[in-house]
């Protein structure tokens, strides 16, 4: 057989007693099979037959003949067939023919002598040599030539009627035959098939056991034979070739089912396919391949018919193909009709890997991925592996790229009252779903101080419909940044823009979302900062364009200076001023409250006094309400309250008539006074106060003077904590006081300082940070019902915050505190935070966990 015009020679048994067996030769003309009868004798010719084509494509055959017994050779040229007798009156079998420079060389087994022999044509004379020196095996011999034309023979050498081994013979240039053992692991070597590679190394396929056993493959590597089991299935009749890449391919018969099978090796893996599972195959097989490695097989079927098969390679492809991309890719796989595709994304073999996935829908690839895929047919035959590598490189966009795109989208919407289909960003065309994802991610990034955005965009789409139920209003910076994060998360998870989003003003449709963030980024480009507030209205022609109210931008430093003025005015006049000048801009008290609360949050987050804050057109409510106990707020509490106030003002364009805190309802007047004092304290001390006193709004309560017994650094609190811990563990009781700096404080004051210091250290504050403490006392009694256990850093920091806030509001340590392990007394609280801070002092970090036990002499000291 050769290429796509195969040639086959075969022995055809007689169909009746009046017919003779025939030696046949067939070839494919391109349209039909042309079949010739070469010999027809009563006893039969060609039971053992071998075919080779010469360099001109002419067939040469060697074959056996019975009665009279002969070894014969024939070839065909332009003049027809030419036949020659090589050996006469000698019974031969297992005939193999090769050509070297178009000259025949033949190996065969001489049954009379039971000897393996080799013959070649020297001029016009056939030279015959004994390969095996004494009568021995030679059945199933296979002949091949090395690159220099020297013969090599693999053969089954039997040493009993049921057992043999695989041997390999090679002829030296001087004509000496050298024989070595390849495999002697039991009865092995039947149906051996030999191929010599381009470097002269031998490769052999063969079967174990005369009646069928494992299919094996051996090749010589440097100094030894390497032997592999190809298929443990009982098999016979192997035939081996090497494809153009040097990879072994084998056809063989499944003994149990007679199925014709095909095995090939990729890397270190053998892939096994079925060739014919309908009428199977007999023992006589032949295999070749074309220049592309496509295999062609001739065989006797199990029902004694002549069979011919060739592989129609499965073709599979990926769209788009591998390459470098800066967007998520949706990859579609296709293959031949009647096949099923499997793929892997972890670099493993999609035919054998436990991680292989059946292909049903396009594959989303959002990071650099090696995609491997292969097709399988209904007979469980696998095709080749296809590999595509997708390098997903993030799209790097500058502030200018993004702002320019936002300006384009905004201008289009305002001119056409509709969304554009596409917008170009940094040379890349995006649809509106992708633009919204980019715009929301950019808003988040710019809010965090970035000047560029690096991201991978997916194949995002808009929803099929839209829904909106929205009140006109404004969103604060914090609100629209939070909303941006939620939109981006939805798009990333669902590959689709949300139908609508929920904000304080109602349900906002995707069109309004796109318009919103195009305006946010356009404002950012114009002013260098994100707008403090942005207006939202329902999507309609009448509401486009949306004109933002006049916005004033000032620095935190400007706001702090204005706070001093507001505080002084309130304390002098027992009333609010109507306006105050902030950074050269006159603002009303509602605007001042928004600026003061926003500045407080910014300072608590570590932002500098040069940070810019913008304010819109806000007003005071027509009424106010207050029901407030006198007390104090810790930094965490009044900062959280400040965030809630700013949020309310931005959404409602108005200061709240009252706010809820632990001490009750606090009016907008008290809110303004509170944050003017907080920022005034910052102006004097360079940091936000540890606590701030609140009282109801009345002339008698103004001015409010903070009750401060002392101001201390965290480092001084750490030293005091070490002293308290040592005294508790020495005396099994609380000390009455502890010296901190140059002053003596009681245990309630120490507990306030210790819990406040724990909070500040957890927030990353340095040990030179100062704290203030008021006049606090211990409760008259304590309660405790506590299980032994451990607290994580998150738990004891939260508990510290609750203790400090309780003390600020009540001027007293709590008689007990609630935690997951039960009720913990103030004594145990003091011991707990003295140990936490002592650990920090010694190790420079808060402990990951800390043990708590009930307060008793036997439980002291507690070893963490």
How are the SSEs ordered, and which strands pair?
Layout: E1 7-12, E2 22-28, E3 33-40, E4 45-53, E5 59-65, E6 70-77, E7 80-88, E8 92-100, E9 103-110, E10 115-122, E11 125-130, E12 139-145, E13 151-158, E14 164-171, E15 177-183, E16 188-196, E17 202-208, E18 213-221, E19 224-242, E20 248-254, E21 260-266, E22 269-276, E23 285-289, E24 295-300, E25 306-310, E26 317-319, E27 323-325, E28 329-334, E29 340-344, E30 357-358, E31 363-365, E32 369-376, E33 386-392, E34 395-398, H1 399-416, E35 422-425, E36 428-431, H2 432-447, E37 452-455, E38 469-470, E39 473-476, H3 477-494, E40 500-503, E41 506-509, H4 510-527, E42 533-536, E43 552-555, H5 556-573, E44 579-582, E45 585-588, H6 589-604, E46 612-615, E47 627-628, E48 631-634, H7 635-652, E49 658-661, E50 664-667, H8 668-685, E51 691-694, E52 710-713, H9 714-731, E53 737-740, E54 743-746, H10 747-762, E55 770-773, E56 785-786, E57 789-792, H11 793-810, E58 816-819, E59 822-825, H12 826-843, E60 849-852
Parallel strand pairs: 27-33
Antiparallel strand pairs: 1-2, 2-3, 4-5, 5-6, 6-7, 8-9, 9-10, 10-11, 12-13, 13-14, 14-15, 16-17, 17-18, 18-19, 19-20, 20-21, 21-22, 23-24, 24-25, 26-28, 28-31, 29-30, 29-32, 32-33, 34-37, 35-36, 38-41, 39-42, 40-41, 43-46, 44-45, 47-50, 48-51, 49-50, 52-55, 53-54, 56-59, 57-60, 58-59
Helix pairs in contact: 1-2, 1-4, 2-3, 2-4, 5-6, 5-8, 6-7, 6-8, 9-10, 9-12, 10-11, 10-12
């Amino acid at each position: 057989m050769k290429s796509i015009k195969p040639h086959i020679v075969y022995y055809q048994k007689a169909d009746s007693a009046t017919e003779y067996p025939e030696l046949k030769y067939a070839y494919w003309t391109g349209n039909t099979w042309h079949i010739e009868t070469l010999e027809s004798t009563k006893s039969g010719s060609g039971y053992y037959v071998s075919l080779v084509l010469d360099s001109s494509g002419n067939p040469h055959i060697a074959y056996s003949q019975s009665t009279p017994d002969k070894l014969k050779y024939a070839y065909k040229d332009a003049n027809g067939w030419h036949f020659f007798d090589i050996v006469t009156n000698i019974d031969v079998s297992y005939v193999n023919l090769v050509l070297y420079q178009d000259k025949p060389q033949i190996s065969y087994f001489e049954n009379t002598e039971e000897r393996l022999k080799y013959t070649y044509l020297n001029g016009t004379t056939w030279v015959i040599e004994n390969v095996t020196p004494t009568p021995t095996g030679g059945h199933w011999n296979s002949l091949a030539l090395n690159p220099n034309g020297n013969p090599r023979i693999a053969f089954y050498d039997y040493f009993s009627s049921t057992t043999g081994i695989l041997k390999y013979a090679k002829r030296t240039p001087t004509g000496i035959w050298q024989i070595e053992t390849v495999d002697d692991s039991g009865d092995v070597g039947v149906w051996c098939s030999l191929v010599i590679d381009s470097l002269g190394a031998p490769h052999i396929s063969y079967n174990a056991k005369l009646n069928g056993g494992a299919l094996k493959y051996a090749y010589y590597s440097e100094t030894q034979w390497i032997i592999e089991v190809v298929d443990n299935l009982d098999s016979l009749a192997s035939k081996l070739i090497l494809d153009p890449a040097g990879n072994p391919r084998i056809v063989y018969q499944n003994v149990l089912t007679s199925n014709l099978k095909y095995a090939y090796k990729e890397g270190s893996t053998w892939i096994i396919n079925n060739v014919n599972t309908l009428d199977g195959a007999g023992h006589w097989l032949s295999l070749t391949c074309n220049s592309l490695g496509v295999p062609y097989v001739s065989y006797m079927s199990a029902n004694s018919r002549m069979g011919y098969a060739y592989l129609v390679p499965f073709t599979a492809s990926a769209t788009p193909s591998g390459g470098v991309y800066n967007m998520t890719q949706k990859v579609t796989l296709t293959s031949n009709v009647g096949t099923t595709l499997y793929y892997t994304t972890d670099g493993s073999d999609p035919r054998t890997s436990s991680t292989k996935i059946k292909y049903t829908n396009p594959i989303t690839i959002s990071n650099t991925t090696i995609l491997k895929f292969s097709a399988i047919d209904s007979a469980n035959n696998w095709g080749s592996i296809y590999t595509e590598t997708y390098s997903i490189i993030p799209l790097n966009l500058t502030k200018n790229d993004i702002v320019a795109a936002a300006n384009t989208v905004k201008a289009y919407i305002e001119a056409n009252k509709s969304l554009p289909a596409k917008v170009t960003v940094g040379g890349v065309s995006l649809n509106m779903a992708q633009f919204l994802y980019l715009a929301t991610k950019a808003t988040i990034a710019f809010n965090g101080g970035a000047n560029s955005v690096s991201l991978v965009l997916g194949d995002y789409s808009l929803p099929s419909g839209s829904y909106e139920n929205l009140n006109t209003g404004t969103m604060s910076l914090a609100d629209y940044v939070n909303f941006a994060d939620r939109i981006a998360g939805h798009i990333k998870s669902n590959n689709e823009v949300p139908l609508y989003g929920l904000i304080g003003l109602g349900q906002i449709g995707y069109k309004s979302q796109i318009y919103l963030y195009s305006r946010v980024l356009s404002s950012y480009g114009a002013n260098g900062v994100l707008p403090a507030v942005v207006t939202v209205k329902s999507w309609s022609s009448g509401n486009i364009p949306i004109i933002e109210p006049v916005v004033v931008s000032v620095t935190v430093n400007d706001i702090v200076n204005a706070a001093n003025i507001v505080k002084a005015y309130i304390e002098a006049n027992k009333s609010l001023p109507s306006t105050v000048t902030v950074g050269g801009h006159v603002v009303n008290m509602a605007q001042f409250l928004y600026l003061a609360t926003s500045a407080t949050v910014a300072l608590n987050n570590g932002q500098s006094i040069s940070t810019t804050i913008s304010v819109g057109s806000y007003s005071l409510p027509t009424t106010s309400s207050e029901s407030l106990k006198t007390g104090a707020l810790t930094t965490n509490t009044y900062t959280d309250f400040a965030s809630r106030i700013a949020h309310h003002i931005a959404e409602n364009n108005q200061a709240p008539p009252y706010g809820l805190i632990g001490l009750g309802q606090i009016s907008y007047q008290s809110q303004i006074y509170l944050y003017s004092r907080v920022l005034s304290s910052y102006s004097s001390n360079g940091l936000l106060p540890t606590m701030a006193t609140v009282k109801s709004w009345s002339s008698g309560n103004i001015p409010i003077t903070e009750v401060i017994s002392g101001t201390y650094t965290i480092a001084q609190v750490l030293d005091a904590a070490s002293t308290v811990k040592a005294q508790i563990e020495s005396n099994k009781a609380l000390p009455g006081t502890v010296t901190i700096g140059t002053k003596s404080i009681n245990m309630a004051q120490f507990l306030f300082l210790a819990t406040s210091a724990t909070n500040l250290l957890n927030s990353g504050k340095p040990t030179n940070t100062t704290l203030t403490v008021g006049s606090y006392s211990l409760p008259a009694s304590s309660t405790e019902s506590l299980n032994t256990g451990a607290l994580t850093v998150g738990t004891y920091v939260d508990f510290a915050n609750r203790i400090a806030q309780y003390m600020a509001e009540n001027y007293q340590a709590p008689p007990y505190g609630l935690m997951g392990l039960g009720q913990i007394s103030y004594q145990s609280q003091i011991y707990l935070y003295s140990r936490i801070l002592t650990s920090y002092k010694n190790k420079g970090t808060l402990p990951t966990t800390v043990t708590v036990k009930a307060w008793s002499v036997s439980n002291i000291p507690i070893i963490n």
